[in-house]
Design brief:
single chain, alpha+beta, Alpha-Beta Plaits, two-stranded antiparallel ribbon, 4 strands, elongated
């Protein structure tokens, strides 16, 4: 039996993100970055740039003070 790697997807609710950068700093696989775009509140928000690197550790979810990050897997 061949084991396949689980695929994860990091979803940031960008309209509520204040761009504190905690998730980016704590993400060791470098899945997240701060966007150059600005949300409705005037913040540069976090965005997922490399879901294929996500290992599902969910540290980004745990450190987010505004609870705007979710991690899904197949």
């Amino acid at each position: 039996m061949v084991k396949t790697k689980k695929k994860y997807e990091v979803v940031v609710k960008d309209e509520f993100c204040k761009g504190c950068n905690l998730c980016v700093e704590f993400c060791k696989p470098n899945v997240l970055q701060i966007s150059e775009n600005i949300n409705k509140m005037g913040y540069n928000f976090a965005e997922s740039i490399a879901n294929e690197n996500c290992n599902g550790c969910m540290i980004c979810v745990l450190v987010c003070p505004d609870l705007v990050i979710e991690v899904y897997y197949e």
